[in-house]
Amino acid sequence: MKQLISASLLSLALFVSGCATTTDNEQIEYLTYVKVGQVVPVTQFTDIQGNKINLEESANAKLLVLFATWCPDSQRAMKALEASDLNLDPNVDIIAIGREENIAALDKFASEYEINFPLIADTDRAIYAKFANAGVPRLILLDAHNIVVKTIIAEGENPLAEVQW
């Protein structure tokens, strides 16, 4: 019984800690593949509405949000972002990338959370894999030239606390 309780607690800790997914009871080391000062590895996206987005066409700062609809930390971050001044800032482009999410799930999520910025379906983790190995939500701050300014694993009660350019 003790082992079952211990395994359950470890599974819960992994679930609420950055919403990492695992197939066993090992804790995942979060690796971030993009570094401050590097050019972002992906600059073109197609959102769930079919609109093409090219980061190179915008002179704004950008906030990339890597998230999963099922993750409580991601849900909290998206609610905070939707309610924040960043969402209204004309000098910041926000693009949210749903890790292992399809268009239908993201469309439902956008409706439920009243999201008004582009959502990108990353069904096979092809985009996410260029940024990290595990953990959502992740915030990637870019300057106007698409250079990485900061990377944040946005867990906890105030997921936007570290968002500053």
From TrEMBL:
UniProt key word Ubl conjugation: no
Q: Does the keyword Signal apply?
A: yes
According to the record, the signal peptide region is 1-22
The cross-references to Pfam families, in alphabetical order and at most eight, read: AhpC-TSA (PF00578)
| Record-linked PANTHER family | PROTEIN DIPZ, THIOL:DISULFIDE INTERCHANGE PROTEIN DSBE
Q: Which domain of life is it from?
A: Bacteria
Give the Thioredoxin domain ranges: 34-165
Sorted alphabetically, the keyword list is: Signal
Lineage at the top is:
Bacteria, Pseudomonadati, Pseudomonadota, Gammaproteobacteria, Alteromonadales
List, alphabetically, the InterPro entries matched.
Answer: AhpC/TSA (IPR000866), Thioredoxin-like_sf (IPR036249), Thioredoxin_domain (IPR013766), Thioredoxin_ResA/DsbE_sf (IPR050553)
The organism of origin for this protein = Shewanella psychropiezotolerans
* Coiled-coil regions, chain positions: none
Known CDD domains for this protein?
TlpA_like_family (cd02966)
| Protein name stated in the entry | TlpA family protein disulfide reductase
